[in-house]
# Entry
Amino acid sequence: MKIVDLTAVGDRWRCQASFTHEQSVTLSRLYETLAGLGHLKPRRFSISRGPKRGRWRSFTEMNSAERVGTSGGAIFFDVGERVSDWFIDFRVWPQMSLAVCLEDVDSVSEDWLRICRDWDTLFGIAHAYVHSYAELDAAGEIEREIERYRGSEPVPRELPEVYWWTGLAPDLVARLGREHVTSTPVDRIELFENGPIFLKILSSTGADPRRGTIAERTDIRTHLCVDVEYALELRELQERADRFRRLVTGRARS
# Structure
């Protein structure tokens, strides 16, 4: 069994959302949402296409009639050192992603949630989550996203994982049963106007994936997915969590 040293890889978390459709929107429409944020309000932005492609521009320049959303490309945002790799990509379908340190996840995720709620009215939520990069990789989440990307099916047909924040598209909510989803034993439920439901399993993140989330995630997934067996789900999460640990190297003796 390969052991992942969290001390070496770092406690980076991913805040991600994919959407169901693209449409042409003005930069000023996106600016409206971003300007009202706290931790994620950009200092500058860059667009990968157009006459000014690749150039970092002041955030205030985003309040313009320039249009994006149907010609591919991506918009990159800079908010400082504590948030990295933040972009919205318009290829195939819009996707938003950013990376953040563990100690900032609680505060940043509130801004992420606000963006998801607003941009759902523009592009339609397909799938969303907030969780640690290390466990996302072990769970095969990125591979599932690639498969949906290749198949042009942005909305998952099932719920293979439950993360710290999990955002469900209206179609998946309907398959699971809306009343069933809203009765899920979670810390917080956010209902979006157009049908998505976002679930937060715990009030705060934990520094160690092995502690404080396995039982809750097992309870939630077995509640939402009637064909998932509790004991098997618990064992799978525990075995995966055992791969993550902080390796402490003792001082060499003189």
In short: The chain has a mean pLDDT of 86.
